[in-house]
Amino acid sequence: MNAVNQPTRLDDGREVEIRRIGPQDHAAKRDFIMALSPRMRRYRFLEQINEPSEELLKRLTDIDHVDDEAFVAIARDETGAGRIVGVSRYSVGNAPDSCEIALVVLDEWRPSNLKQVLLGRLTEAARARGLKRMVSVDSTDNRYMHEFAPAHGFDCVPDPEDSTQVLYIRTL
């Protein structure tokens, strides 16, 4: 895996920079969320949001990088201006050896292997943190995760607390 902040070439030839998210990404994260299709926003947040609140943006970008970690994939245009095109994150909850994850890329980046690259970076960070299990909570109609997760070592089980959701669980 490439070092943080180094360009990563994807299988479709495009390059991205993958690095930790930070407070400086507040505006770019807003732009990223707004660039997601309504369906992908619903899949990511498990509810329909029209626009992210300032509180949500702060919670997503101002993190401790210990119990919460997140990586952004930045694509640069010909002028060098960058935008977020994908995000992976984990959050440690009540179980100290387990984390809940989220992973989303812009629709036009789904055909590339960006999601796999982001999951790889997140997995490295989770293992380095000593975590033993990743869990993704997803809508039962999220066909993208239904295809992606099992192909990357996640088992699918019904969410015992919500019949409209499933849990994808991966042992690290």
From TrEMBL:
Pfam families per the UniProt record, alphabetical: Acetyltransf_1
* PROSITE patterns for the chain: GNAT
**Is the keyword tRNA processing assigned to this protein?**
no
Any one GO MF term held by the record is:
acyltransferase activity, transferring groups other than amino-acyl groups
Q: Which residues form the N-acetyltransferase domain?
A: 16-172
Record keywords: Transferase
* InterPro entries reported for this sequence: Acyl_CoA_acyltransferase, GNAT_dom
Q: Does the keyword Repressor apply?
A: no
Q: What is this protein called?
A: GNAT family N-acetyltransferase
